[in-house]
Amino acid sequence: MSQAAAVTQSEESGATPRSSWTGKQLIVLLVIGTAALMVSLTQSLLVPVMSELGVDLHASSDGIAWLLTSTLLVGAVAVPAFGRLGDLFGTKLMVLVSLGALVLGSLVCALSDSLAPMIVGRSIVGLAVATVPLSISLVGVTLPREHSAAGIALISAMLGVGGALGLPLSGLIAEYADYHVLFWICVVGGLLAIPGIVALVPNPPRAGKGRMDYFGTVLLGAAMLALLLPLAQGSKWGWSDPLTIGLLVAAAVLLVVFVLVELKLKSPLVDVRTTARPALLLTNLASLFVGFALFATLIGTATYVQMPAVTGYGFGKSVLVGGLCMLPGGIIMLLLSPLSAKLAPRTALIIGSLIIALGFGSRILLTDSLFQVILGATIAGAGTGIAYAAMPGLISHATPLSELAAANGLNALFRSVGSSLASAIGGAVLAAKTMNLGGHELPTLGAYQLLFALCAGAAVLAAVLALIIPKHSATADAALPD
């Protein structure tokens, strides 16, 4: 029987037995949620301090970019691999391993004053990216049925909350303290979460069978590296550069080989047949588009308000103010995640995606005041919180319990690919339409409006995909293999 069969009787009813939360259950959720939040913070924490890092580390912009790229690339390999290891050897164990990577990698960065060891530290932090999908699975099997949906929704929303809170936190540190404090925050957060999980979170039985597919892991890792590296570096290399094109072609070939290999294995890294089910495939594709919209919110808000007023649209604000503009969106993501748990997952994904589109639509039309910018970003954040919180429910409905952690990891990977696409496409759009002010090339208002239109379109596509996801029923759950 699938995880969903143990959690709910029907998607469309959205009803679960009512009982109050116990103190222990709330503490378990708080501990796991803190772990997920700390890891989510690492994905946006360095963005506002990149220029300061370049000066302090005496490094070029290309070198500094590897502080973000290294985490992205390692995370792309770690997420599916740790998910499968969680199914085979215990989700709680792999959460602790990934949090250990957060602490170790952040400690290396906190003690570093040169570029090379800091890239090493950020690469180790990339292993910790698997914490969030693993935490989703852990909450799903440790909390009782009546609370698991709300817990899963909260942890899933942390992916967006961490990204939104990371910018103002980083802006605050950049203005009033040394950037090393950012890494120490991650060290302390990880050290607080680890003993809490060890002592308070029960160790669920292993659901997976078989053995680890190391060859498939290498194949998928190589494919993700070949895909994400040109997306991260394509603007510098040039999109028509042979290296960029060659890597993208290699990614396509490796993914085809990966699918063919996985189809022949008894214990694959990814059950391709299950993943190809319409419910799971459409959910993952919708996740990609929502991930696209979320990351474009980050790059299209903080930098937007920091642009000088002479551009005709910017407000000339500081890094701190730019980050604070994201804060209401992060808070509302957190507050609205329980609402998603009360809705049928499919319905929540549709509603959330349409709210995201509404938020970006307002960003296109309303450009006169800082309040309008914050309002649009907050609306998009609200939709993101609802949509992100809905996805694990859809995943659990279509996935056997023995593959749940791996399936959540694959879904997180789709979100990451969506964010990488947003970074690449958004960067290209903002670089293509510019104005010259004082010898500096700055994006035009039309460039930002085009980016927001792409985000609104991506959100609408996510809603359309969610609309055609097959409706869930308990009968469908029972038909899934163990």
Describe this structure in words.
The protein is mostly helical. Helices cover 76% and strands 2% of the residues. It contains 21 helices and 2 strands. A two-stranded antiparallel ribbon has the order 1-2. α5 runs antiparallel to α7 and α7 (131-142) packs antiparallel against α8. The model is unreliable at 1-17 and 473-482 (pLDDT under 50). The chain crosses the membrane at residues 26-51, 63-82, 94-113, 119-143, 150-169, 181-202, 214-231, 243-261, 281-307, 319-336, 348-366, 372-391, 412-432, 447-469. Residues 28-474 form the Major facilitator superfamily (MFS) profile domain. It is a multi-pass membrane protein.
Helix and strand sequence: HHHHHHHHHHHHHHHHHHHEEHH
Tell me the number of helical segments per DSSP (H or I, 4 or more residues long). Answer: 21
Residues in helix, %: over 70%
Instruction: Give the N-to-C terminal Cα separation.
Output: 6 Å
Strand order of the largest sheet: 1-2
What is the percentage of strand-forming residues?
Answer: under 5%
Mean pLDDT: 82
Largest sheet: 2 strands, antiparallel
